[in-house]
Write a structure and sequence with these properties.
By secondary structure, this protein is α/β, with parallel strands linked by helices. Helices cover about 40% and strands about 20% of the residues.
Amino acid sequence: MIQYEKNHKGCDMIHELTIKITGEAGQGIQTIGSALCKIFKDAGYYLFANQDYMSRIRGGNNIFQLRIADKPVYVPRKFSDIIIALDRFSVECHKDTVSPDGVILLDKKRFKIAEEHSRFVHIPMFDMARETGGDEQFVNSLACGILTGMIGIEDHFVVKVVKDTFSQKTDDILQRNLKVAKAGYDFSKNHLPQNRFSIQSGNFTESLLMNGNEAIALGAIAAGCKFYSAYPMTPSTSIMNVMAHYAKDFHIVVEQAEDEIAAINMIIGASFAGVRSMTGTSGGGFALMAEGLSLAGMTETPIVVVDAQRPAPATGFPTRTEQGDLEFLLHAGHGEFARAVFSPGTIEEAFFGTIRAFDLAEKYQIPVLIMTDQHLADSYMNIDMFDLERIKIQRHIISKEDSGLVKDYKRYQFTESGISPRAIPSWINGVIYADSDEHTEEGHITESATLRNLMMEKRFYKKMEGLSKETEKLRVYDVQGADCVLIGFGSTYGVLKEVSECFHQKKIGHIHIPQVWPFPLAEITALLNDAKKIIVVENNAGAQLARLLRRETGIKADKSLLKYDGRPFDLDYLLEQVEKD
């Protein structure tokens, strides 16, 4: 059994394994990875799985990495215990990323590799797939069988997942996949060292397996979203796919727009008509939405927009991760208007944060932005079942029954809170006026300086004052008396949490910010007033969160740990960086 009881960093580690499947695009890397996630989930293990893939349909080098353990894990590791390479190039790419006791499973004959290496384990995978299944393409199922056999997973878990995976295929395809998976499992049991990679039995069986984008989509559905419009853009596209999958069941209209400009204007129109609406994109698409965002601000129309970040500028690394849009989202759109920006760091936060985004958008009649990234969007975890009792949906509109009683309706009526009564066209007697120009309480265009001041105070100052009292609570760990406090937002939550838990020679606390705007000024100031050392951790080059912290609180971080190579922080990298300080 590979056990990381205490590594050379002095970090107590759980019983765990890291597995990497790597090969060309088109070899079914994601199919293998997804199947293994389901197998390990069913077997009761905690898991974290992330993907690293190139922007191409064929060729290149893609990775699906799983970390399985007997207690929750949130972040990838630098080294893998088992690597299964499906092409020659993958061997060269990843042979230096094997853990000290790990192995690379490869087909030396197929790859024409004569090199002897202590960690190379030759398996005639392609010959076995062809002989057992009739075609080399079945190497996916063979790999599943081999890996589960090595780790000591009972074969009935493999059979169940293979059946589920290929249930929509013909019976012939299903039976051949089962036969090949069984052959891989038996080969592993008969020819590979046993117990070397066995892991403590799992006991986490009642769980959900999903990634960040799935959680956002399900959160939108739970919040009552009935219209979703978007133009496909990695890594946001799977949100639209999930919404479309459930559209019929939940009476949702999903529209693939011709571009991002059309998408945001469509959801503004749908929301104006009374429907909870959302769109999703990445930074480049969000740039096109900026004018529409201002339109929502001026017309006080509630919308929810997801920005699934990737490295930029321009096309950048379209399939990689980054947190470079923070300042962009805070200031996107011309002019000044109230907004909220969520930055979920976990699957649960993505789900419940999306529900909260819809509620705030409708209550304050503003655009609310959800800032995620490729790492959270595409990474899988198994989690506890969502507590659906927490969901309390309240529609902040004049009901259909009450609409008939309203007289002299003013869409932009001045109120103490800055929030005007919102009626739905056709429900109310009379005309509802809306315009992108500055307007009166009734919605008519105006050039009055006095009304302009009053409207700005209503749309901006009063709404932001209310929003500032409703920010999501910070997630805080061991900050009091800490030798060092790590601060992050979004998908860095997992690595901050695990690093904080690993250190014993000094106390490391961390603060995760699940909502970056309005900035939690009072709460974070109180936590950091006596901090000995502050390190801000973020996936960008400009230290954007550190700058925001200083701008809003006057607190300057002692150091920023930045990563902007398109890859997320792994546990080992951040441990090394924090230990240096």
